[in-house]
Structure formats: C-alpha cells, structure tokens
What we know:
Blueprint: H1 11-23, H2 25-33, H3 55-78, H4 82-93, H5 100-107, H6 111-128
Helix pairs in contact: 1-6, 2-3, 3-6, 4-6
Amino acid sequence: MSKLFDFDIDEDKSRQQADELLTQYWRLKHVVTSTSSLRSPSYSHAPKSFSSDNTTEKRAVKTLEARQTLEYIDVALSKLTVINRELLKMQYLSAGKLTMAYICGELGITASSFKKHKKQALLEFAESYPSEGLLIFKEH
Length: 140
C-alpha cells in the first residue's frame, strides 16, 4: 500500500544524525561562549614567520558556525511536541547528566515509554531542523 507523502526517510540514520548533533550541544555552547575563541592581536618586535592561514579568521568562522547551529537547534526544538521537546532538553541540553529514571519521573512516563518517545523525538527533531544534514533519505 503506498502512502501519501512517502519520502523514503531512513528513520534510523536520521535519528542517529540528530543524536550526534544534540550530543555536541555543550561543545558548541562552549565555542560560542568561550572568551578565548577570539583574541586581540598581540604585537612583538621579534621576527615572525608568516603562514598562509589566518587562525583568528578560522576561529571567528567556527564561532559563527557554532552560534548558527545552536540557533537551528532552538528552532527545531520549538517545533516539537511538548513532551518530546522536554525529553530532548533533559537528555541532551541539561547542564548535568540526568538519568533516564530521573527524566521518566519528571515527565511522568515509564522507561518503555521513554524509549518510544525518544525515538519519536529524535526523528521529529531531524524533520524540524532548518538546515540540511539531519534528515537522511533512503537510496533506491
């Protein structure tokens, strides 16, 4: 039976992409908030060899990319159902490592329901993410 709007999404790979991105949340946050990511140039009278790469420029680009990714994460999360949004926020975005038991208690769900909601939430997140890369389609 054919489905209306069957886009052949590879759900497992899409969930994995979403999981990998959300797992990097705190690293991205650190890049954006780190005071050492951009520094003023320092001057000295000592001879210096010049390289063709600009590390300050690279750091600035990395900071902007991280900031954009964090904004995309916020946009995608805002489009999720409340329980899925809260589950992902507690699982990936909380400052401390929260246990599944704690998250289940806070959300009022069982462990088996947690697993079902997490699978659904990661796919919903991948579908809502405003940039390419998270939603993976099956190859024919």
